[in-house]
Amino acid sequence: MLDFLFTGWGAFWMTLFMLVPFAFMFFYVIHRKSVVDSGPSGSPDKKMSRLEGIWLTVVFVVFVGVNLASLKFMPTIASAHAATTRTDIQNIDLSAKSWAYELSSREIEAGRPVRFSGRSTDTMHGFAVYHPDGRMLFTMMLMPGLSKPTSLVHTFNEPGKYKVRCLEYCGVAHHAMQDELTIVKSN
Fold first, then answer.
1. Tell me, what's the pLDDT at 1?
2. Which of 33, 112, 165, 177 is deepest in the core (most CB within 10 A)?
3. Which residues contact 136 (CB under 8 A, 6 or more apart)?
4. Residue 120 · residue 142 · CB < 8 Å
5. Whether residues 94 and 52 fall in one domain
């Protein structure tokens, strides 16, 4: 329903929505204490003014509400939800090693969730997938020596060529560690 608030420009405007009132109150308090009334406060130290109580309540409610509403956008929550509610998950095993990826498949059907299960054979690697327009969709950290692979479930909704890049410096040819996923229309 309010998905637009947590993605793209919506996230930017949501941040401003939360930052601007804080900045306004900050400058209001600074101005009031430095220009209007620079002396000590007339209220007892242990008592909170009505304005402070209202402000703290509003900030707390907005902060908690925004964070609860954004939980479903966390990759781990979205992965767990997709893994438990969908039975048609495509599985792609991947292995990262010095400056290359080995993928069990590079062609993915749009609209179906994909479980990426990845391992690193030598050092730390990243597995970041970028939308054709350049936005990063998700990233995974692949660490060597783990008993289980790193796993993430994602659903690609639009067909196209999606770039894969390593975001964890892995040596002299790190910049060349790239690959591509092809998302095709579902049948």
1. 52
2. 177
3. 128, 129, 130
4. yes
5. no
The answer to whether residues 66 and 128 belong to one domain is no
Write down the pTM of the prediction: 0.64
Same domain, yes or no: 60 and 94: no
Q: How far is CA 141 from the centre of its chain?
A: 14
User: Quick check: is 83 in a domain?
Assistant: no
How many other C-beta atoms are found inside a 10 Å radius of the C-beta of residue 80? 12
Burial 13-51 (b: 16+ CB within 10 A, else e): ebeeeeeeeeeeeeeeeeeeeeeeeeeeeeeeeeeeeee
- DSSP conformational letter for 163: E
Percent of the chain with pLDDT over 90: 42
Residue 68 resides in a domain: yes
| Residue 149 belongs to a domain | yes
Q: DSSP characters for 90-138?
A: EEEEEEEETTEEEES-SEEETTSEEEEEEEESSS-EEEEEE-TTS-EEE
